[in-house]
Amino acid sequence: MTFKLGGEAGQGADSSGHGFAKALTRAGLGVYGLQDYMSRIRGGHNFFQIRVSDRDVQATSDAVHVLMPLDLETVNAHLNEVVPGGAVIMDTHMKIEDSVLTARGVKPVRVPLSEIAQREGGSKIMINTASLSVAAGITGLPFEYIEQVIIDNFGNRKGSKVAEANVAVARAAYDEGAREYGPEFGFKIEPRPTKPRMLINGNQAIAFGAAAAGCRWISMYPMTPATTITEWLAARHKKLGIVVKECEDEITAVLMAIGAAHAGVRAMTATSGGGLSLMVEAVGLSAMTETPLVIVDAQRAGPSTGLPTRTEQSDLQFAMHMSQGEFPRVVLTPGTVEECFQAGWRAFNFAEKYQIPVFILTDMNQSVAIRAIDPDRFNLGEVTIDRGDLMTDADLDGMTEGYLRHKLTPSGVSPRAMPGHEKAIVFTTSDEHYEDGQAVEEAEMRVLQMDKRMRKLDLAAQDIRGPLVEGPEDADVTLVGWGTTYGPIHEARVLLEADGLKVNHVHYHEMWPFPAARTEQILKNARRVVDIENNYTGQLALVIRMMTGMDLPNKVLKYDGRPFTADEIARKVREGVMAHV
């Protein structure tokens, strides 16, 4: 079942939607919530969509069962999404004829929402609380879940009087909805008592993973949709012992992170495509000085400012090839909150073990979409801390020769010392350099240092996981994707199998160094391969062709700033398959 609450910016769709999602999560249900908002503070059309199920859900849906418009624009924009038998919960005075709804088989649920909000709570601003409470009433969600969330949300932030007023509004609206419309409404919710679950988005999961990895520094310039990574860490900075620095621009942010890492702490920054563009020269500095660096790129639709609050997967090749010259880097592309957590801690191991920049690519959808999961899915027992070839004080005390920051080694990884020890002068520069870090222009040393750095790429490739394969080896159709296409592709596979097709799914969550041999092994005998991406050019398909020579001509591409749904993917795959029967 899917709920959608919509209105203008400032009407509370986001905060109310999060509260309702929390109530559903506490009822033991699978929840996937997606916030959709315009790039403005007031006005414009925003909505919060919540999909709920008795099983785990990892994608949004085309179909809406309960629409809750706080303004007429929401009805006009989304009425066509409401399924027959669904409902539109609206204020008594909303100016739309009931016949417009009933003609589509949709039930008008008219409740005096603003009157209830004013009478019970003293302010019409609580109309969003009233609307969601009616939704709970007609679908059978027990009121105690709504009440407890209101108390938790408002009692802690705004005091008991505000909480009591909202509870009174919710109770009156819930009772009226349940009494007047509940018996005849066909879609119901059945709580499934279970142990406490976590409601979390991808950015929070990355921050959680970074904290587990021992990150002690994050510097960033606020840029949608990466900002909530910093917000999560800032709210816990004292407990975690992490410095959170908001900078004047992205160049400062990345250089501060490089400086912190050079000094010896695990450091990161986070941005989106526009900010990452400003960081390009500094990424080269990290590579040349062999300073570990973790960068999160929460992608959004470009170029330039583009669509600041919309999603896209268009920075893949940018992350793989950016900066001056050639150097090794790792690109992680998590597709679920569990993978975001893993990327959050694994990125630091890659960065320090190989002394390279590491990118975590997410997108707007993954950054803001919330999902209910069992906390045990974040396997803290799996977390390891690998700081690479890091010299201890004992190592440094025992040296008989001078310390060489860029020492030539068979692995390409030089022993790393922290600045400050009396026996180790840690010197480096952005110029090509000798082993001791002093600048050099000699051709022979240039080749030796370049070869040394690039040897690390082969080593890092051995640590890359995946791609993951779900489904039968003898599939009729193979769906290929990366990052946040995982959820909708995973569910589309189930829909297609219900049609009698045998379908498997190849998912890339750690992208570079690219697992070419594994890719060839998987795809060489595939009957029909479909590449599915949220970009215009099919960037993963281009990478596969570049690295293996295998062409993927069949593509489902989306670049309107909105995430895929499972229904959408299944429909387009069916159309393509039937066209070649």
Automatic annotation (TrEMBL):
GO biological process annotation, one example: response to oxidative stress
Molecular-function annotations in GO: oxidoreductase activity, acting on the aldehyde or oxo group of donors
Keywords (A to Z) from UniProt: Oxidoreductase
InterPro entries (UniProt xref): 2-oxoacid/accept_OxRdtase_asu (IPR022367), PFOR_II (IPR033412), Pyruvate:ferred/Flavod_OxRd (IPR050722), Pyrv/ketoisovalerate_OxRed_cat (IPR019752), Pyrv_Fd/Flavodoxin_OxRdtase_N (IPR002880), Pyrv_flavodox_OxRed_cen (IPR002869), THDP-binding (IPR029061), Transketo_C/PFOR_II (IPR009014)
Ranges for domain Pyruvate/ketoisovalerate oxidoreductase catalytic: 9-175
Domain Pyruvate:ferredoxin oxidoreductase core intervals: 475-569
Domain Pyruvate flavodoxin/ferredoxin oxidoreductase pyrimidine binding: start-end pairs: 209-365
Pfam family, one: PFOR_II
The keyword Nucleus belongs to this UniProt entry's keyword annotation: no
Protein name: 2-oxoacid:acceptor oxidoreductase subunit alpha
Organism, scientific name: Handelsmanbacteria sp. (strain RIFCSPLOWO2_12_FULL_64_10)
